[in-house]
Amino acid sequence: MATMKTLATANYDFEGLITGGYVYVDKTDMLYNLAKRDKDAIYFISRPRRFGKSLMLSTFKCLFEGKKKLFKGLKIEKKKWDWSKTYPVISLNMRAETARDIPGLEKNLWGISKKIAREHGLKVNWRDCGDCGKAFSETLEALAKKRGPFVLLIDEYDVPLQTFLRTGKLGAARALLHDFYGGVKDNVGAIRFMMMTGVSKFTKLSVFSALNNLTDLTMDRPEFAGMLGYTRREIETTLAPQLGAFAKKLRCTRAEALKRLLAWYDSYRFSPYSNVKVLNPVSVGQALPSGILTDYWSKTGVPTLVVERLQAGGKMPSDLAEVATTPGDLDVCDANDLPWVPLLYQSGYLTIKKVVWTDSPDGRYVSGLVLGVPNFEVRENLKSNFWRTVMHMDEASFTSLVDVAKRQIADGDMRGFLYQSLFGLYAAIPPTWHVKDEAEAKRYFLMFMKMLGARTQPEVPSLLGYADAIAETKKAVYVFEFKFNRSAKAAIRQIREKGYADAYKADKRPVTLIGINFSARKRNIDEPLIEQL
Fold first, then answer.
1. Which domains are present in the chain?
2. Beta carbons of 445 and 480 less than 8 angstroms apart
3. Predicted TM-score of the model (pTM)
């Protein structure tokens, strides 16, 4: 029996994957369709972090360097690609050029030009280059004169700018990068092929405002919707051996294993014009060999900025089930104000769930989109990171608070939960977040309960009304009623008068009635009332 190939998650080098005998999910047919064009082959694509952008660029590099042997047995082998024609490849990983201050960033950008000149034996009169943008332009021009058309691959173009998003130096950083990327514009006629990747498409950078022939693959080219990430079909075919081993580890059928994998990591849809959905490749790559379904993606980066923008927009994770927007709103993200909807979408915390089509005399067009959280992994990631960030707690303190509350609920210690944990959770709400009415107070409560993993149903109907919430455990049933600037006694009275707990009278578990009043003056709950049915 042949040895099952390893599915790599930390190797983004195409040549290393192929020569090392790792699994490679073949995307070379799509790469060929982009690379075969001789004119206007200038591309940009935005995808969330860890979605295979670096591996894609590495594959392009090997392709244009004519490394034919690496592509044996892949889809591109059947295409009409001229392997004898090679090009000099400039490959820039902009993550490596990040800096803590503006002088450091400028020094790093100057260093890029000097490195290119050194590697290709170019003579550039640096004294005539007044800034890093001019230096980059002159370097590319010198390369074209010596070697002819070249290939330019820019990975994570936006990372150097992200470093300065929450500082007062954003304008200066953007000006430097604007000038630097202007070097691309100056030499576009000498570029045989260019691919630039990033997470966000920031406006007001020269690479977007001046490159008239730049093709944005992010949303509008449906044939490339599955170019990054794994499709379900690729899981079932290319990764079939790994899926089979995964099913054995879970002690379930292959179909059930695939269903669980999809629930955790699937449903990223990047184009309104294509139904193709993809799974997060890093999470899949770690889940399949380990047999463990958990939140792998969050370990690759804490979304502090995402949570802060979500909070600034007055939103909580529970508000993200249906977010209405338009394709135009998602296409760009202004670095000055960072609107939370395109930021969450471009970062991978929201994805396309529904497309709204409108008919017009000129034909059908996409007039609106409904976004939602892609899968269980992202939902858990947002929920845990949101509360840790909002409450300004370190991970140990947050975990301790949650563990205590979970134990109190499981043990039936509702008095301890209400007077200690719930009071503490409400007290941790930042002063800038106003609990303005009963509905807001209930919304926070439901979020707390969901965060704790408690089985809680809101607005449970009875013959005479709706209970605010009912929580069930294996040992007990709890009926909650909220008031705002009134009294817990009034809440208990309403539970009894409206018969909110009547459906549980025959239940063998004890039924507890809980009245809670939220005081706007105290910005917390008053002393709750607890009574047995």
1. 26-224 (3.40.50.300), 245-376 (no CATH), 392-532 (3.40.1350)
2. yes
3. 0.80
